[in-house]
Design goal:
The protein is α/β, with parallel strands linked by helices. The chain is built from 7 helices and 20 strands.
Length: 364
């Protein structure tokens, strides 16, 4: 803010015909048309408009209706731990905020109510961006979000969890070939960043292509609030906001970070019932037993071994497996380096190591 400028002199933020004064937060919506019973359908939006100039950051969760950790991340950023907006425990002080935060806690409202990944028409919204105004139901949802939020944002963070059959160690995915995306990913502060431009029609790919640098958080699994995953998302968003100059905050970074262009899935070589012997974040050695497969009576039929020394980033949860099913996503990393990643360093610039392995994230 230039010297002598006060809140009253700052410009309001306009969203969907609503004027939002500086230093305030307003609950709004993106309209989607009527539902089967004639009821209005919409996407809830909460806009925090700061009292100081700065960028517009979009924060999106719930594109997949069963992925709830991101929903909780947005709730805590809007309302604080007491879930009441504009109280002393709020994570973001609106009067001290520089710029604007556009929060979309749940994009796929009906998918969430149905406890399913896709929209009610069973399409994956995250393969349909930028959407179509006169398209099918899912394309219209994608269009409303893209035009209403992405087109207004200077930067975007898309919050996800693994599907119900898997779980993920919190990590960021970004297009390493786009400088601003990689800078955002580093600022977020996870120990592992995976290179991924995203599938065609995904929000991060289409938004980045249109000029809005976008990163994606993967944390935990579906159908639940996992507070460790939620807190990693909250910390990461606040780190990004500090990086963009929106808030005053010391960035919290790991002692060591892996930049991974490719990783490796350990796969089942036979079908059966799966018993995992590891969890996300575990460091494993090449040849170490990471899972057992049994027959229906519980007798061991096969052992799955780690194909390399590294860190478990993703893990299947479904005990029913077939030959070729992915069991564990493993990133190359020495044990000493991974131990270093668990310690918060004195510097805000952690040591980094690049990994280029056999499979891209998008291959899996």
């Amino acid at each position: 803010m230039r010297p002598g400028t006060n809140v009253a002199e700052m410009q309001s933020f306009h969203f969907g015909g609503t004027e939002i004064p500086p230093g305030t937060g307003v609950e709004l919506s993106l309209e989607l048309g009527d539902g089967p019973a004639g009821n209005p359908r919409s996407i809830p939006v909460y806009v925090l408009h700061g009292s100081k100039p700065g960028p517009v950051l979009g924060l999106v969760a719930g594109i997949h209706g069963d992925e709830l950790n991101g929903v909780s991340v947005v709730h805590h950023l809007i309302h604080g731990d007491d879930h009441i907006a504009n109280t002393e425990d709020d994570t973001i002080n609106r009067e001290q905020l520089s710029g604007t935060l556009i929060c979309v806690p749940v994009v796929n409202i009906e998918g969430m109510l149905l406890e399913q990944r896709g929209a009610p028409d069973n399409r994956d919204i995250n393969r349909l961006f930028p959407g179509k105004q006169s398209g099918n139901q899912s394309q219209r949802i994608a269009h409303a979000l893209f035009e209403g939020v992405v087109s207004r944002a200077d930067y975007l963070i898309d919050l996800h969890s693994a599907p119900h059959s898997r779980t993920n160690l919190p990590h960021v995915r970004a297009d390493f070939d786009k400088k601003e995306c990689l800078e955002l990913a580093r600022a977020f502060g996870t120990q592992i960043i995976l290179h991924s431009s995203g599938p065609k029609g995904s929000l991060r790919r289409e938004a980045s292509t249109k000029g809005t640098p976008t990163i994606l958080l993967e944390a935990g699994t579906a159908h639940r609030f996992e507070m460790e995953a939620v807190h990693s998302g909250i910390e990461g968003v606040l780190n990004v906001m500090a990086h963009l100059g929106m808030i005053e905050r010391k960035s919290r970074q790991p002692g060591f970070r892996l930049l991974v262009r490719r990783s490796k899935w350990a796969r089942a070589e036979a079908g059966g019932l799966l018993y995992s012997l590891v969890k996300p974040g575990d460091h494993v050695k090449k040849g170490q037993n990471i899972a057992l497969i049994t027959d229906p009576l519980g007798a061991k039929t096969h052992t799955i071994q780690s194909p390399r020394t590294g860190v478990i980033v993703g893990l299947t949860l479904n005990p029913l497996v077939r030959a070729g099913d992915p069991i564990a996503n493993i990133v190359l990393c020495s044990e000493n380096k991974w131990m270093q990643a668990q310690v918060e360093p004195d510097t805000e610039v952690p040591e980094e190591e690049s990994v280029d392995d056999e499979e891209s994230v998008d291959d899996a």
